[in-house]
Every structure is written in structure tokens, then in C-alpha cells.
Backbone:
């Protein structure tokens, strides 16, 4: 099994009321994959959300696609990192 | 001035004793840019660190390069997100 | 001016739809005080939210009271830490 | 089994070189309990660290005691929250 640790970065305007509820619902459906989420206020309108995720690469890809496609998300990116097992120490 | 919110993801083996001190020193030199850092234990050996950063794109790029080049870092990526001001709401 | 770094811990059921929107609204009103927020899924229903805050003690106390009193929050606590300036190194 | 979600808040001067390595070692020994850790720069010298933990109350208490007693930690507090199962919804 290929296990991968990755980051999903989302940018959205928190004034769009349903975006946050939608993102939380999706995240909760995959709570065994999403380790923790960090929220910061980027500026007056925009929130940036960083999700630390761990799981099979295909599952992570599908969750990221779903989050990034959610209505109200302005920008989203998946950054895949290896577990480092295949990298020189 | 172009201000950008971005994510720097770092993967390292915490058993490499000086890697964490080195990363903290670099982060502290730029504490006005690095908003907050989220740490998770990816597996027995590997830590994943997600840095939420806000600042000029060129400054962020330079900090990311310095962190990713630090001895002991196995993997690192910079994910640039727009502030969304140039995007349709 | 007394500046203090503190933690606000909140526990709520994310199925209560309006609780998250209410908490985000309050947090956004005080975005200059709330540095960053960490979300974790505690169990199937409950979310735990950790807010890192920095500011005058009286302001932090008022924000914490408002958040903890929000409808849907089951449990909330404010943990005040000193900046350490008055503590021996 | 009583499972509890809690927050451990730590305040330390990052210039004290071994404090961070010591804290990471302790945290790694208990990585099944510590979900994620949020770091912020409180001021020029002081770091604040918020640990989201989940586990048996007695285990969490022991880990918190160990972290707070670590050399270089100026201030530390354990905030216990219920899982909410015993609270009215």
C-alpha cells in the first residue's frame, strides 16, 4: 500500500456562508485521512486553510478534487509529499 | 505591492537532531512572514510541517528555498495561492 | 500595555449547522487578535478547535466569553499564558 | 475507557537550544496521543505551542506533566475538555 502525507491548501471568502459548512462536511466524511486543519485569516475577506492529510494517494487526490471544486473556493492546490521511505536519508 | 498567501510543506526525520533547530532558526528570522506552523507525525520517523505564510512573493520564495535546502529536509514544496483579489467571486 | 499569549479551546458538534458559521464570524471580528486556529476531529460528532491568540488580557477574555457562549458550543476554556517576560529564564 | 480531548499549551524561549529537541522527543514517544501541534511566534523570543491530544485522561496528564517539567519551558498548562458525550446536545 502506498501511503502518502500531503497538504491541501484552500482559499475562500468566509462571507460566502455555505462554503465553510460544505468544506467541513466533506472533511468529516474523510476524518480518517485528514489529520488536522490550520485556519488563518489572510486578509479582511479571505481565509486560507491548510489540511494535513495522510493516506493512499488515490484517496487523497479524490478528496482534494472534491474540496477544490466546492462552491465558494477561489483557489485550491494539492501538494503531495513522499513519506520519505524512498528517499535517501 | 503583491501580497500572497502560501503554504510551505516540509518533510524530515526528527531523529536528525539539528534539522529542527535549523528550521526554527530560519523561521524565526522571518517571523513577520510566517503566520503559524502545523506539525504532524506522519509515521514513526517522519514529521510533516505545514507553514502558513503571508508576504511578498519574492520573500516567500527565498524563505522556502532556504528551508527546503536545510540539511535533513527530505522533501519540501512551496504552494503559492493568490489572495483571491484577482479572481472572480 | 499588558500583552498576553493565550489558548482558547472549543468543543462542538459540527452537525449543528450554524455553530461553525457563528464561531467564524466572531473570530473574524477579532482577526488582529486570533493568530491561527487548529481544527481536529475528536470523534464522529465532535470537533475540537484550538485558537492561538495574542493581545491585551481584557480583550482576549471578552472574545473567549463570546465564543464559549455561542449556541452549539458544548465546552470551552480560556488558558492564559504569560509572555514570559516576568518569568525567570 | 474514558477518552478525553485536551489541549496542552507550552511557552518557551526558542533560543534555549535543547528545549525544542526535548519537547519533540517527548511528543514523539506519545505520537498516538498527540494529534497535531500548532506553533506560533508570540514575540521576538517566545514560542507558544498548542498540542491537540486525544486519549485516556491519566495518560494525557502524565504527558503534560513531562512536557511542562522540561528544562526551558517557562509556562505550561493542560486544559481538559470532555468529548461531550456526557453533555446535553
Residues:
Amino acid at each position: 500500500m502506498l501511503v502518502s502525507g500531503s497538504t491541501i491548501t484552500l482559499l475562500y471568502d468566509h462571507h460566502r456562508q455555505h462554503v465553510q459548512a460544505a468544506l467541513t462536511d466533506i472533511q468529516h466524511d474523510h476524518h480518517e485521512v485528514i489529520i488536522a486543519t490550520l485556519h488563518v485569516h489572510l486578509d479582511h475577506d479571505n481565509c486560507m486553510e491548510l489540511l494535513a492529510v495522510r493516506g493512499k494517494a488515490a484517496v487523497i487526490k479524490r478528496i482534494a478534487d472534491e474540496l477544490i471544486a466546492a462552491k465558494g473556493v477561489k483557489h485550491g492546490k494539492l501538494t503531495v509529499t513522499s513519506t520519505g521511505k524512498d528517499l535517501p536519508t
Notes: The mean pLDDT of chain A is 83.
